[in-house]
Amino acid sequence: MTDPQASPRQPASIARPHWGAEVLWQALVPLLPGLSIEVVQTLDSTNSELTERLRNASRVHKTPSERRGGRVDDLFPQLLVAIDQTAGRGRLGRRWHSTAGASLTFSLALPLNRPDWSGLSLAVGLAVVEALDPHGGRLGLKWPNDLILRDSGDGSAEDKGPVGGRKLGGILIESVAVGEQRAAVIGIGINVIPQPLAEADYGAAALAELWPHATPQDTLARIGEPLVRALLAFERDGFASLQDAYARRDVLRGQVVRTTDRAMPEGVAAGVDADGALKVAGGGQTRRVLSGEVSVRLAGIA
Cα separation of 235 and 227, whole Å? Predict the structure, then answer.
């Protein structure tokens, strides 16, 4: 994930000390040598900004010999926070709406030296909800990339809403080739205080419902180190070791769902497999649904 020869460098920008960026950097840089953390006031999209930086870095290396001859700064890990994100993006091109002070929106870009990234978004989501809800009573996961606030502590049938809760946040992962390396850009958006969320077709939630005094700053502080440790573990072990932990947070399991997979347009969600694929059962068979192939919606939702 990081160059073992790389020496830690100071954060590129810590213009807003109240964000605790320096404290977070000090905790993370032993795990991610060379890490920079930037907090900016306004940006269209943290994912777009970091993917463009990586593409620019890729253009630096035009020959095989140049690709072998060291690394550019943009291959060091970068964590970018936007206080106000004006054109955030969700999965399948949806727009992520966020408001300054009401949301945490950030992206982490870093080389990920694992050939198979299957289940990466699930591993990221699991790290986030376990950091925010360590006892597991309120936060769940809707495959492949939604964070769900359950409307009661036990996830029972009495919960409101078709997934037993409402959307708290989402994850967007993109891949950029830089020379011979492959970098992940991992975008996370979390509603901290109530606000409109057009992307959620089953209602919006806010972290303040779980923590009444939540702020974007303390949310980042809580999830930063667990997220990085989860990425290091994923790079080493993949998703398989997380399958059981994911099952405990899975809000789709046992629900009737629709998919855009013509071979299994509707069925019952039956958990995820060791590669992070959604299993959908129906008509006497079980089919694997991959996040890059389909969009899943609960039956009865247009």
Answer: 12
32-41, 80-89, 281-290: range with lowest mean pLDDT = 80-89
- Whole-angstrom distance, CA of residue 55 vs CA of residue 196: 33
For 126-164, b/e burial (b = at least 16 CB within 10 A) is bbbbbbbbeeeebbbbbbbbbbbbbbeeebeeebebbbb
Q: Is there a shared CATH topology between the 17-247 domain and the 256-298 domain?
A: no
Domain locations along the chain:
17-247, 256-298
Backbone angles phi, psi at 243, to 5 degrees: -60, -45
Model pTM? 0.86
Residue 281, SS3? strand
Q: Answer positive or negative: Cα dihedral of 138, 103, 111, 224.
A: negative
pLDDT tens for residues 137-174?
899 999 999 999 998 644 444 445 567 789 999 999 99
Contact 224, 24 (CB under 8 A): yes
CATH code assigned to 17-247 = 3.30.930.10
Angle, CA 277 vertex, CA 274 and CA 280 arms, to 5° = 115
For the chain, the residue count is 302
Residue 94 token pair: 């949806």
Give yes or no for residue 298 having a pLDDT over 60: yes
Give the count of alpha carbons within 13 A of 26, CB side only: 3
Phi/psi of residue 169, each to 5°? -170, 180
**Of the options 1.20.58, 2.30.30, 1.10.3470, 2.170.140, the CATH number for the domain spanning 256-298:** 2.30.30
Amino acid at 149: L
